[in-house]
Amino acid sequence: RGAWKTVCEVGFNAGHSAAFWLHKTDAHLMEFDIAMLPYSRGSRSFIEAVYPQRTTFFIGDSKHTMARYMHGVQNGTQPPCDLWFVDGAHHGSRVVLDFRHALATTSPAGWFLADDCNRRFLPVLKSFLQLVHLGRIFNWSKRWVNNGPPAGLVGWCVGQVNTSVPGLWYYDPNTTVSLPGAARAKRG
């Protein structure tokens, strides 16, 4: 955990995970958020006060802010992300965009985490598993927790980026991926 220089996150919300990434590390946090929730501004002020000079906020639609950041990484004006925590869009093509931009800005052998990676949010789960299937990510997710309806399987998908597979990833809805079983507590 201490080796991460740059942590990137989409979906600040109330800043809980932001505090986790910054606590007892020297990491700098690149935060992408739409900032529409009533408590987001106060939470941002708190994080900036507790961890001064260690956060950069990109406010707006991640479709645009993450794309600009991707171009910054590609032209050397922004640092690549040693760890990505994706907790942005949960439905449709927006999930794919967040994943694509995150992958394109991850440092070699960087870490890729997705929140709400479960059957309740199938686009998140399927996108992650497709990246595993294609060899773009080494899957480190070993446990799935079944909380029953309405949540179902909950938790994070955790992977490490495989930089030996070049190019951008494009989601193919026709690719078959194995979904974790609803009744299983472990996946191995």
UniProtKB/TrEMBL annotation:
What InterPro entries would the database entry show?
SAM-dependent_MTases_sf (IPR029063)
Q: Which Pfam families would you find in this protein's record? A: Methyltransf_24
Q: Which domain of life is it from?
A: Eukaryota
State the signal peptide span: none
The identity of this protein, by name, is Class I SAM-dependent methyltransferase
User: Which species is listed as the source?
Assistant: Prymnesium polylepis
Q: What is the lineage of its organism?
A: Eukaryota, Haptista, Haptophyta, Prymnesiophyceae, Prymnesiales
